[in-house]
Amino acid sequence: MREITYLEAVREAMSQEMRKNDDVYILGEDIGVYGGAFGVTRGMIEEFGPERVRNTPISEAGIAGAAVGSALTGMRPILELQFSDFITIALDQMVNQAAKIRYMYGGKGKVPMVLRTPSGSGTGAAAQHSQSLEAWVAHIPGLKVVQPSTAYDAKGLLKAAMDDDNPVIFYEHKLLYKTSSDVPEEEYSIPLGKADIKREGTDVTIVATAIMVHKSLEAAKELEKEGISVEVVDPRTIVPLDEETIVNSVKKTGKVIVVHEAVKRGGIGGEIASMIAESEAFDYLDAPIKRLGGANSPIPYNPELEKAHVPQVPDIIKAVKETLNRA
Amino acid sequence: MQLTKEKLLIPDLSNDKLIDLYKQMWQIRLFDEKVDEFFAKGMIHGTTHLAVGQEASAAGVCALLTVEDKITSTHRGHGHCIAKGATADKMMAELFGRTTGYCKGKGGSMHIADVEMGNLGANGIVAGGIPLAVGSALTAKMKKLDYVTVCFFGDGATNEGSFHEAVNLAAIWDLPVIFVCENNQYGMSGPIKEMAKVEHIADRAGAYGIPGVVADGNDIIEMINVTDEAINRARSGKGPTLIEAKTYRWKGHSKSDAKKYRTREEEQEWRKKDPIKRYKEVLIEAGLLTEEKAEEIRLAVKQEIEDAVKFAEESPAPTLDDLLTDVYA
Ligand SMILES: Cc1ncc(C[n+]2csc(CCOP(=O)(O)OP(=O)(O)O)c2C)c(N)n1
Ligand SMILES: [Mg+2]
Known about the structure:
Chain A is an alpha/beta fold.
């Protein structure tokens, strides 16, 4: 197998699908010769032409709605938004239209589309270009929400998202674009709703999403030196959520920390923690469930403040130790 | 005032003010060139959008504004900020993420605001400032204040719903706002010629029943003249005007841009229309400036920018306690 980057994995998944299925097309701002804000679509307009790689005006509400409408009538669009913060502008079409059409119409019609968009902080782009708003869309029945943490997962999950007959919001993390892993050349699918145990352990479970998977793995490595065995569970998709894998892990370790980059208040961590508390894993808990998330402020520009906004490896290590001490 | 045979300046501006504007154009250019250098060296975090080549619209439009008048700006906003009276030291400090910066280091390049000077802020959201400007004009109308609000935005922004909704509101309420579209021909890469069917952005004014004016955005005198008329309309309760300044950004869209969407020839053509050089020639012909004096001005501005860098470098960084301050009023 060869190693490719997360960014290349996303591009490859799209390109392979577009070669096979004429109904699949991509639309978005500057996705033509510019290659997209982060370079994900570089080379695609050269291969597929401007009909299927549609460079759009700066009109998030319009292009989101056009994607929904074309999905409803037989196409399978991939919509790229340059930064996930701009989903605010596309949200009416995603939330009031895409998510509800099939249900409102009594099971008639479907909206098979993927909205791909980079999220997360760490690039110094400040308050309007760094947010993680996945909990907003996870709250909406009818939408599926994916957050890959590795190149391998990105390719397989994107394939599943494109094959899905529902609107899927696919969050790519900016800081992960350049990370690499072994990725098969051929197409493969990772089912939506199947978590991955990124590291096995026995003392404590960390449920982490997106870039926090990597920070948690780093923390686990450090903690191993002190004889603490950490299991890291990556849900990969937050809707649908693989409750079983999380619950089984917590039953095994008796302790759990949920970590995400998004602001802690109202974040998906609250949902995961509640799900655990309501499950049979509750009786196995030896310590309170702990959540780590972003601070209750917009993302600041200054790099030190920006780092302080989101959980870092030392914060995770500290949380693990606090949890172990409460057990 | 008839400045030269071709150049008529409509509003009454003093000779000192005209020279000041020349200096200001250099402040805008040299500030952004310094920022460009710092980004290339990796000395500044984040991203930035430079307005080199677009100095005449910022300086020309703001030339007639008072401190009470307001502006809203864009991601490409350093020039607007300087033209509305901001100083390079506090701007540079912001880019360095220091507490002495306009946003105490929390905003960065895309969010510089100087509310005391009437600058309601740059904006990271394309077209995000347009409805804000309309709101600011609404305040003026409701409180019977006689300030005007100038709203800067790019060509690409006019394809956002916000633009259309906001211009319509301003039109039906006859608000004292001046919409200034700096049409530098491209969004990030999308050519406006492919992204809109109308020939001129100014044509869009017709859809809202307000005047639309096309201006040479690289000619500061023309920018002053068309703004003068729009301000007079706004101050006399006749409502908004849409001004389209045709211009060009010399640099790439942001810090990384291979500029594959345009040709080097096109860039060269526009560089020939250098707004600073053109203005210098007018001032010299009018007998208000000499080559020597012009060079003196440029060098003085250069020094000013170096001093601003020094100020920024010597300023303190925020502490971690600052993370949670100013979230709520
Ligand atoms: C709502 C929104 N969509 C997309 C972007 C990404 N983006 C930043 S600047 C830009 C181009 C803006 O073009 P224009 O309005 O012409 O301004 P210019 O950059 O040319 O000054 C784009 C697409 C954004 N910041 N906000
Ligand atoms: Mg533009």
